[in-house]
Amino acid sequence: MSQSPVRSSIGSLDHYSQPEDSLAEIISLDNVSFGYSRKRLVLQDLDLKIQRGEFLTLLGPSGCGKSTILNLIAGFYKPLLGAVTHGGEEIKGPSARRGVVFQSNALFDWMTVEQNIGFGFRFQSISKYEKQKRVETIIGLVGLRGNERKYPYQLSGGMRQRVAVARSMVVQPEILLMDEPFAAVDVQTREGLQEELLKLHEQVAGAILFVTHSIEEAVFLSDRIVILDRNLGGIAHDIEIHLPGPRYTAMNRVSDEFNQYRTDLYLKMKAIE
Amino acid sequence: MQLKMANSEQVSAFKGQDLQTQALREKALLFCVAIAIPSLILILWELTTRMGWIDELFLPSLSGIVSEFLAMVRKGYAGTPLLSHVLGSLRRVFTAFGIGTVVGCLLGLLMGYYKYVRAAFYVVTEILRPIPPLAFITLFILWFGIGEVSKVLIILYAGALIVMLNTMAGVQSCPKDKILAAQTLGANDLAIFLYVILPAALPSIFTGMRVALSVDFGILVAAELLAGDLGIGYIIQDASTFFNVEGLFVGILMIGFFGVVSDFVLRVIASKVVHWQG
Ligand SMILES: Nc1ncnc2c1ncn2[C@@H]1O[C@H](COP(=O)(O)OP(=O)(O)OP(=O)(O)O)[C@@H](O)[C@H]1O
Ligand SMILES: [Mg+2]
User: Fold this and answer.
1) How big is chain B by its Cα radius of gyration, in Å?
2) Alpha carbon of A83 to ligand 1 centroid (Å)
3) What angle (nearest 5°) sits at the alpha carbon of residue A186, between those of residues A185 and A192?
4) Which of A117, A121, B119, B148 is deepest in the core (most CB within 10 A)?
5) Is B4 a residue whose pLDDT tops 70?
6) How far, in Å, from the CA of A181 to the mean position of ligand 1?
7) Looking at chain A, which residue has its C-alpha nearest residue B187?
């Protein structure tokens, strides 16, 4: 922590009085201010904590700073003020401990599905056998079996996004950052992808920070939803989602609870806009 | 309702077939046009020269060119076997092209990747870029003598500059998100360079190589016109001083032939290496 003791003693005390609380946090943004240029801030005094293993979704009007928050956590940018920390250590740059799935999927066109997914293992000391096993397992989980030797140009948009998710997930990052990853695929494919993502999240224990414009997607996927305000990345609402049963069952999309959350969030979003 | 669906399916299937045959027909037609026009030109050529409509001094007959070629094969040209002329030219052009490609590639990669290298070379390349390489040819002869070295060097320079600029553009065109994705998967700078930036630049590198090779053939002929007693350019030059128009055409057509063949080979290699573009 870069904060001085004096600073923390006058800051929000409750965070520091409970050690087990800080243990549960994986990512923490403290008093973060950021702007792409010094003239205009995008985020001001933002506080956001992400718990170990949780599925957190950011909702908010276009341009409110959702992608910016992801960029900061990924380590692509540094905050002007405040601290962004991962497990209590300041984030200095991109790292394999924090995976990213881009909306553009950012696959390596010159590598096969298998090579794309196995890419992260090149930089880990892991046996060939273990690598092969893990790649095979995840290919099965995302339903890409039979496409191992294909190149990205031979895949559909949905399949490419599956490869991108698998590639980030297979190295088991402590948190996976996903910026509107399914925005460019059709509705059916999208629902399939959402269900696979939840299953993967169950198997790979890391946290997920997800950005979307779809309220339905947010409710279906998340343990918790944070709605950002229009101005300077303030947090307007912080809502926990409790849906019954296994999360990825399709019935969850039509249950009363689901509809209640959806209506509630819809009204909250409308109030912001 | 069902009947209607079946019907519309049939229609669309029929339409699909129609489109396919249409595409095939179009392909055949395009092929015919591509073959017909050059054939027509050849026929006209032979006709005009046979009928004596054009003086043989301006345009020799095709048969005259062929027999001149065969004579060269048998007796050589200016006391040297034709094969030696051809190999001499090809050796020059491919030595220069090979070294030029390697040098251009390395410089282009460095310039694309490192801002400071780019800045260091920026002014020089911007000044050199618009100057036709041939403008340097006498200067090269002055510096490196009239022998092989200055010929190879001028070709090398022209090709390397083109490969370098294309390689640099290729490196810079590498999508930012792919680099970031590699970083978030744990890749260090060297790995990013090898596995992301280099493959992303390959299509541009090959484009640069193809342009460079065709330019290299041009410079080769010019360099051989100017000096020496070996090479296809020399044949062209020597034949024209003796008004041997058939010989002149043999030289020109041989350059065209080797240019086309080597470009084709390069294109095949490129499509094998850069296979992921579909
Ligand atoms: N690379 C950049 N350079 C300069 N300004 C930027 C850059 N990226 C984003 N911005 C600005 O920062 C603000 C927040 O952008 P951000 O992309 O974080 O919004 P967002 O919430 O992700 O929006 P959307 O929902 O449309 O994706 C916007 O005003 C945007 O114009
Ligand atoms: Mg965004």
Assistant:
1) 26
2) 20
3) 85
4) A117
5) no
6) 16
7) A123
